[in-house]
Amino acid sequence: MSRFYRYTNSKADLNMSDFIFPILEIIIGIALLFSGGELFVKGAIALSLILGIPQIVIGLTVVSLGTSSPELLVSLNSIFKNSDSLAASNVIGSNIFNILVVLGISALITPLKVKSRIVRRDVPLLMAISCAVWAMSSTGLLTWQAGIFLLFCLLVNTVWEIITINEKDEDITTAEPEIDDRSLNKGRINIILKLFFGIFLLSFGANILVNGAKSLAFLMGVSETIIGLTIVATGTSLPELVTSFIAALKGKTDLAIGNVIGSNLLNQLLILGSCSIFSGFEGLTISKDLINTDLPIMVLTTFACLPIFWTKGKITRMEGFVLLNIYAFYILDKIFISSDFDLLREYRISILIYSVLLTILLFLRERFNLLKL
Fold first, then answer.
1. Which helix (H) or strand (E) holds 121?
2. Which single residue of 22, 86, 265, 339 could bond 224 by disulfide (Cβ 3.0 to 4.6 Å)?
3. Is residue 235 within 8 Å of residue 70, measured between CB atoms?
4. Distance between alpha carbon 95 and the CA centroid of its chain, in Å?
5. Longest dimension (CA), the chain
6. Over the stretch 232-264, which tens digit does the pLDDT of each residue have?
7. What would the mean pLDDT of 75-87 be, rounded to a whole number?
8. CATH number for region 2-341
9. How far is CA 367 from CA 97, 318, 333, 361, in A?
């Protein structure tokens, strides 16, 4: 008995030590992605200013691309390592995280008022693109033809944004990020160094993060899809979280919302489009779990923005709390599924009861002005 105990105990210790390196890879990869994204954005903005590109165009293109660069590099790196499930789940998980967590936390800081035309227009566009991606993925493959279509939609949307710049009102102007050209325009050599070093950190960080995610999924005995939807998606969404968090603190609520909507559009149009093309003629493989569960959740969370944005014109603190609750339940459900939790059915029933009670509370709050936040 004692020999058996020593054997199982030493095996358990070995397994625990095996987790250290993949976790460190994930942490280091996320840190490098965050740092690389910051350098890339600063270098790209400074270069754009030197070339005489208007700041509002920079805000609509360069800044948005910079915050989505971690997702892009991680997903492309996953494609090159034959991890289609990690590439797709990273994008889908990031979109879910952005709406539920980034908007939720931002709304807790201050109610997010929606006034600008850019948000009112982009929300229906995001809903249409999300439905199109779900429909095109329903066969289990996102083909290269679909990728070309998504990139074409991105080009049309970007041109449309630039053409309609003069139509923007004051609210839209204040929704654009602040760009300090005095601090960024410090010489072309410095700008080029920032760009190249930023791209290097993004590429290196993406490679480390993907390796760590694949190793952790193998050690935990779960699919790469679960890791992509949770750990990887959270790590690559940190730039969006930080950007919206700071914008909410400064009271720039349009920027906090526009950052999320723009990032989710880029994730689907640019990243999924690029990944499906780089996957070759066979296309990007989409797992059944993503098609049946996570893509519908992504679409539903996107549709949830519509009544919030159009009816009340803002996201209240209570609604932000609800969004965070939904994400917590979503993540717990994923964890329980991957660990073969015996009480999964009871957990889902309890979540249903909680949701009904919360809905009643929100109705009473609206009806009798209770808990006004």
1. helix 117-137
2. 86
3. yes
4. 4
5. 80
6. 888 888 888 887 887 788 777 777 787 788 889
7. 88
8. 1.20.1420.30
9. 30, 15, 32, 10
